[in-house]
Amino acid sequence: MTILDELFENQPIMAILRNMDPERSVRLSRTAWQLGISMVEVPIQTPDAVPSLEAVLAAGREEGRPVGAGTVTSVDQVELCEELGVAFTVAPGLDADVVAASERVGVPHLPGVATATEVQHAVRLGLQWMKAFPASLLGKDFFGAMSGPFPQVNFVATGGMSARNAGEFLDAGVRCVAVGSALEDEQQLPLLAELIGR
């Protein structure tokens, strides 16, 4: 069993906290953890997002929760994530240099894929967990189509996901659905709780 297998085991929902200040990021992280969502990702597409990641990492250490960094698209970002102690990294696309750097520093990486060619390339690089992005545009049928040639691949559906459509993607074979704004929607919180308990 890989580190990502262990992290995502029995975790059908992951929280993504993008473009939020540190205080809001920590507040929504705690909302996620209280719901039973252990997996939290804080994207660091720009340097000014790093303080939010650091704040959530500190909160995660207090509660024994794994925290990942998203939008990791460079080797420098991988090395920063290793220094900060993130549990995993996520990217919008597939970059062999980022994959190699992640392996070198021992931080599991979840690359973004949207085509069979990208999935095949990621498999050749030794990866079994991938982020399907943008999942809402790919559609739930994408995952059934990919399961034939790539039965060993585990997909995390990201992009346009909410408590309202997550169930359809999980039923289509996705291992985890990543949501963001749903954590601030009082109507979606009960739906998320149902998905976690299914």
From TrEMBL:
Pathway terms, separated by semicolons: Carbohydrate acid metabolism
Pfam families cross-referenced by the UniProt entry: Aldolase
Record carries keyword Lyase: yes
Signal peptide region: none
Keywords, alphabetical: Carbohydrate metabolism, Lyase
InterPro entries to which the protein is assigned, alphabetical: Aldlse_KDPG_KHG, Aldolase_TIM
Source species, domain of life: Bacteria
GO molecular function terms listed in the Swiss-Prot or TrEMBL record: lyase activity
SUPFAM superfamilies recorded: Aldolase
Family: Belongs to the KHG/KDPG aldolase family.
Subunit field text: Homotrimer.
PANTHER family assigned to the protein according to its UniProt record, in alphabetical order: 2-DEHYDRO-3-DEOXY-6-PHOSPHOGALACTONATE ALDOLASE-RELATED (PTHR30246:SF1), 2-KETO-3-DEOXY-6-PHOSPHOGLUCONATE ALDOLASE (PTHR30246)
Protein name as annotated: 2-dehydro-3-deoxyphosphogluconate aldolase
